[in-house]
Sequence to fold (127 residues):
Amino acid sequence: MQEVKRDERGFTLIELLVVVIIIGILAAIAIPVFLSQRDAASTAELESDLRNMGAAATSCSAADNGSYATCDDLAALEASGYNQSPNVVLGTIVADEDNFNVTATHANLDGVSGTFDSGTGRVVITP
Fold:
């Protein structure tokens, strides 16, 4: 049998195992970071949609002399410039003369909902 020169041999089993372990450690670090960033992006999308609904309701009320009463459904908000994101699920819209409140959830976030209140002008996300 011919003897293989030292510089022409392949990797040893130990070298391959070390590489696989290093890749496993990097994956163990990267996957949870990726998942938390995905949840943060979904929360930001929900918050953005709620703010956009509030802006559309303000626009709708301005067209009705400051009354939110006619801004109580999705069609009225869409007529005022609101475009719903595909993953945001609209909950309830409560509108009267002076106030506008809306709740929504995100399809990718279990148990997380958000609310916009025109009285405070704030979006509140609740886990």
Observations:
- The chain has a mean pLDDT of 88.
